[in-house]
């Protein structure tokens, strides 16, 4: 999935050292990145730090992002997710080591690693399967089938707006379901 | 990214939230400290300032062995950066801006390049990078209050300072691209607003590149169509003394990609296999393309 023209232009401007472009990227995506960081860490202060760091990393190393490989939103979300997960794991380690020694230390994850380990990806797929029929179909068509909102609507025989709201409701349920499992 | 990963990240972003106080001012201040923005300068010099910032972003990710890798002209990355600093310094000297590095001895590009390279070879590549950036930024700051039509001279060529600065921008762009290729990185193009004046300079140079190659295009007219963001149409008299406003009906037409065309003038790519759509006097159109790299030096 390639990045849209807007992403490319903002990326070009950031590479060219245009601070205003960084401000625009922040205005457009910070609430998503903060929301994601908050979801994973459940700590507003940590989520703020992660959000700030994600945009700083993009500014400092803009050539690490390749618009041919995905949207800016997905790229920043990947970095935020990685940082948030690292934080959560570090917290767990701290808690565990307070209770006693650990049998093994997981390898620290790197920026370019995949978002989800194989077992985590399986868990997400299972959570999709557990969604109510109408939501599951919509989300499968959109993500696994690569359809647009309009195409999802056509295939399910519902208006585009309905398709869109089903997908969004499905995503929200998924996030809740996955968060519950973690507790 | 796997569809299931995209799905997962989108699910996590389905509840956007806003920090209690805006992180924006703090972010921008932090950004300045981590990576210097493009130097403030006159609007007409921004294409150059932005290529300097882009090159610097590329250099920021250079590891120790990247600096000693040969990029072009038999030069290592460090020597290439010293070469850019040398030419920026000559332009700075010509407009009364501060000249950094060793005192000016040789005043031609190649001589000054050799002087600066000799000076920098003894130093750490990061110092070379800082010197180059400081020279470029000092030039940018000086240009802020300079009239774009002020005459400046480099290598015996007198032209409005604006054209020299656009040429510096093109050279910095091309060398950043050279370095990115060696490092296996993709360097995005400049924004269309910066490509356009650069392409305009390249178009206006065509009578000169022909003449330097021994071809006199006097009285002939070229229609040049450059496609892609930043492109445009030019109707150009091909004689160096022809009235630029007095172009007649085109004798030949060339249509090509705008970035490819700028790079051709900059000596990148083979004119024989350059992808272009030619019409009218094909011999003339081919002459224009074949001679286009004539002004490109190291």
Describe the protein's topology.
The complex is a heterodimer of chains A (183) and B (298).
Chain A: H1 5-15, H2 19-41, H3 44-60, H4 72-99, H5 118-129, H6 133-144, H7 149-156, H8 160-182
Chain B: H1 3-12, H2 24-34, H3 46-60, H4 64-67, E1 70-72, E2 75-76, H5 77-95, H6 109-121, H7 125-143, E3 151-154, E4 157-160, H8 161-182, H9 192-212, E5 217-227, E6 232-238, E7 252-257, H10 258-265, E8 276-280, H11 282-291
Parallel strand pairs in B: 5-7
Antiparallel strand pairs in B: 1-2, 3-4, 5-6, 7-8
Helix pairs in contact in B: 3-7, 3-8, 5-6, 5-7, 5-8, 9-10
CATH class of the largest domain in chain B: Mainly Alpha
The CATH architecture designation of the largest domain in chain B is Up-down Bundle
- Main sheet of chain A? none
Strand content of chain A: under 5%
Tally of individual domains of chain B: 2
Q: How many domains would you count in the coordinates of chain A?
A: 2
| CATH architecture annotation of the largest domain in chain A | Orthogonal Bundle
What is the fold-level CATH name, i.e. the topology of the largest domain in chain A? Rna Polymerase Sigma Factor, Chain: A
What is the CA-atom radius of gyration of chain B, in angstroms? 22 Å
Note the main attributes of this structure:
heterodimer; A: 183 residues; mainly alpha; Rna Polymerase Sigma Factor, Chain: A; Arc Repressor Mutant, subunit A; 73% helix; 0% strand; flat; B: 298 residues; alpha+beta; Four Helix Bundle (Hemerythrin (Met), subunit A); Nonspecific Lipid-transfer Protein, Chain A; four-stranded mixed sheet; 11 helices; globular
Give a brief outline of the structure.
Chain A is mainly alpha-helical. Chain A has helices at 5-15, 19-41, 44-60, 72-99, 118-129, 133-144, 149-156, 160-182. In chain A, helix 5 (118-129) crosses helix 8 and helix 6 (133-144) crosses helix 7.
Q: Could you characterize the architecture of this molecule?
A:
Chain A has 8 helices and no strands. Chain A is mainly alpha-helical. Chain A has 2 domains: 5-98, Rna Polymerase Sigma Factor, Chain: A, CATH 1.10.1740; 118-182, Winged helix-like DNA-binding domain superfamily/Winged helix DNA-binding domain (Arc Repressor Mutant, subunit A, Orthogonal Bundle). In chain A, helix 1 (5-15) packs across helix 2 (19-41). The longest helix of chain A has 28 residues, at 72-99. In chain A, 39% of the residues are buried. The mean pLDDT of chain B is 95. Chain B has helices at 3-12, 24-34, 46-60, 64-67, 77-95, 109-121, 125-143, 161-182, 192-212, 258-265, 282-291, and strands spanning 70-72, 75-76, 151-154, 157-160, 217-227, 232-238, 252-257, 276-280. Chain B has 11 helices and 8 strands. Chain B folds into 2 domains: 41-188, Four Helix Bundle (Hemerythrin (Met), subunit A); 194-295, SCP2 sterol-binding domain (Nonspecific Lipid-transfer Protein, Chain A), CATH 3.30.1050.10. The longest helix of chain B is centred in the middle third of the chain and has 22 residues, at 161-182. Chain B starts with a helix and ends in a 7-residue tail after the last helix. By secondary structure, chain B is of the alpha+beta class. Helix content of chain B is 51%, strand content 14%. The chains are: A mainly alpha (183), B alpha+beta (298). Chains A and B meet through helix 1, helix 2, helix 3, helix 4 and helix 5 of A and helix 1, helix 2 and helix 3 of B.
């Amino acid at each position: 999935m390639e990045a849209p023209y807007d992403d490319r232009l903002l990326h070009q401007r950031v590479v060219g050292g245009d601070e205003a472009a960084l401000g625009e990227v922040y205005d457009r995506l910070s609430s998503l990145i903060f929301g994601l960081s908050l979801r994973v860490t459940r700590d507003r202060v940590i989520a703020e730090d992660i959000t700030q760091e994600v945009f700083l990393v993009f500014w400092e190393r803009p050539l690490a992002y390749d618009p041919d490989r995905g949207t800016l939103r997905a790229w920043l979300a990947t970095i935020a997710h990685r940082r948030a997960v690292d934080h959560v794991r570090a917290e767990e380690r701290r808690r565990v080591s307070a209770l006693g020694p650990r049998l093994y230390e997981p390898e620290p994850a790197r920026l370019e690693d995949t978002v989800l380990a194989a077992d985590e990806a399986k868990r997400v797929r299972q959570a999709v399967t557990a969604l109510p029929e109408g939501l599951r179909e919509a989300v499968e068509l959109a993500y696994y089938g690569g359809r647009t909102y309009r195409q999802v609507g056509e295939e399910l025989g519902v208006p585009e707006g309905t398709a869109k709201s089903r997908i969004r409701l499905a995503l929200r349920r998924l996030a809740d379901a996955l968060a519950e499992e973690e507790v | 990214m796997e569809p299931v990963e995209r799905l997962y990240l989108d699910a996590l972003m389905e509840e956007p939230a806003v920090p209690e106080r805006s992180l924006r001012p703090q972010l921008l201040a932090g950004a300045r400290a981590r990576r210097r923005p493009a130097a403030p300068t006159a609007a007409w010099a921004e294409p150059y300032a932005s290529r300097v910032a882009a090159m610097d972003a590329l250099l920021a990710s250079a590891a120790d062995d990247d600096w000693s890798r040969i990029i072009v002209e038999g030069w290592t990355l460090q020597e290439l950066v010293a070469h850019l600093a040398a030419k920026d310094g000559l332009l700075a000297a010509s407009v009364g801006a501060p000249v950094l590095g060793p005192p000016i001895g040789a005043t031609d590009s190649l001589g000054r390049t050799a002087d600066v390279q000799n000076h920098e070879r003894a130093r750490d590549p990061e110092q070379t990078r800082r010197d180059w950036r400081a020279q470029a930024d000092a030039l940018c700051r000086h240009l802020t209050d300079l009239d774009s039509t002020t005459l400046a001279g480099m290598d015996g060529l007198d032209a409005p300072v604006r054209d020299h600065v656009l040429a510096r921008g093109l050279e910095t762009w091309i060398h950043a691209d050279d370095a990115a290729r060696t490092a296996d990185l993709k360097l995005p193009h400049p924004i269309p607003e910066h490509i356009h004046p650069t392409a305009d300079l390249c178009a206006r140079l065509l009578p000169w590149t022909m003449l330097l190659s021994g071809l006199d295009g006097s009285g002939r007219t070229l229609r040049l169509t450059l496609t892609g963001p930043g492109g445009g149409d030019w109707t150009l008299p091909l004689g160096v003394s022809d009235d630029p406003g007095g172009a007649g009906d085109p004798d030949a037409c060339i249509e090509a990609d705008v970035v490819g065309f700028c790079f051709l003038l900059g000596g990148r790519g083979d004119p024989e296999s350059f992808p272009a759509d030619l019409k009218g006097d094909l011999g003339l159109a081919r002459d224009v393309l074949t001679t286009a790299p004539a002004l490109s030096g190291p």
